[in-house]
DNA sequence: CCTACCGATCGGTAGG
DNA sequence: CCTACCGATCGGTAGG
């Protein structure tokens, strides 16, 4: 076992009980965030396997070996993209629901969930979730399990809404199966939706609601 | 320019005006088909980039260089998987519609299309179409255009049905957008459906119809 | 963080 | 089809 060296402690092995952040530590976490953003962008457009750590380094303005100062491995980078992405959108989803005010209808809640999900998938500044959706395979089984738990939490918020809509008759399929179909329909938009096309995210949301709900 | 050698003409440069097949040629086309099946299976489960031509050769019982006797490149193998897969399912789709007999309802036609599509996606012996759906990126632009044309033809068959259901009021979204959402919902089943699970393809089809159509 | 480097793997080919 | 091989690229590391 090596004793920890005094200078250049690898930030991917952060120490516990964090003291106040020095200017250098703030710099480091910013560089780390830049790496994550560059990686997410490249993973989304080229795929994980087709993206080299050299590509990522170059996109973040570093030399080829430098990403490994911030991340243990290429796989750890992928995991971090997915993990940080999920943490972000799960919180944003809860806020989108709270913004509806008191006692929103089930339909209004579904609308908010769908609209927010579109934002996450095809809105500006969101390569993270598409990477999670389409690069699942590249994770190790342990990583998959952990990301899967975050994904379950995100999707769980939809179930009460779907159950309520099923009870009222608006939703005609079984809620569990409906949830899987609906996420499929939404997640697939990554493949075809053009943010610069004629359809706005609001219109897209409206069409989705009309497709899935039988009334109104 | 090399004159064509007398023995071992590369089968991936087939001559025109084909004469009757010799036994050797039949053998060759069978070996080619085995390669395609092995490639489709590996591409589906590991992804194109994560599958080496050596993996494919081994799965087909060959040595590492041998796939290049049958295919110009790894990319040509991917293209062939997608092309042959699309040709197969497009024909099968037409047959599924014809089997409905004269004057089927629009609902019956949609049911047949969905049911057939599930068969293509998650039924036995079908790695080809999932590869096409999820390895799109790995094609060259020219290959993408050609496969895209085949895909358009396959999907075009759905439009008259959706238009008809829109007119009758069963479908409440715009047919063009509905088609995209519906294919998303169906194509995504590749990610979660378990053929050995409790849900049959018939039940899955029924749930999909209930989700997308507002009446009955 | 950079420099310099290693071992492994990969797509593809020549020659039979 | 196999054998033997090449050049390129890749993830990752030691040492500063």
Summary of the model, kept short:
The structure is a homodimer of 216-residue chains. Helix content of chain A is 65%, strand content 0%.
Layout of helices and strands, plus pairs?
2 copies of one chain form a homodimer.
Chain A: H1 23-46, H2 53-59, H3 67-70, H4 74-98, H5 106-122, H6 128-134, H7 141-156, H8 159-168, H9 175-192, H10 201-212
Helix pairs in contact in A: 1-2, 1-4, 1-6, 4-5, 4-6, 4-7, 5-8, 5-9, 5-10, 8-9
The structure holds a DNA duplex (16 and 16 nucleotides).
CATH class category label of the domain at 75-213 in chain A: Mainly Alpha
CATH superfamily of the domain at 75-213 in chain A: Tetracycline Repressor, domain 2
User: Which fold name is given in CATH as the topology of the domain at 75-213 in chain A?
Assistant: Tetracycline Repressor, domain 2
Number of helical segments with 4 or more residues of chain A: 10
Fraction of residues in β-strands of chain A = under 5%
Number of strands of chain A: 0
SSE arrangement of chain A, N to C: HHHHHHHHHH
Helix content range of chain A: 55-70%
Query: Rounded to an integer, what's the Rg of chain A over CA atoms?
Result: 20 Å
Indicate the mean pLDDT of chain A.
91
Overall geometry of chain A: elongated
Distance between the termini of chain A: 67 Å
The poorly predicted ranges of chain A are 1-9, 14-18
Q: Biggest interface: chains and residue counts?
A: A-B, 36 and 36 residues
Oligomerization status of the protein chains: homodimer
Q: Identify the CATH architecture of the domain at 75-213 in chain A.
A: Orthogonal Bundle
Report on the biggest sheet of chain A: none
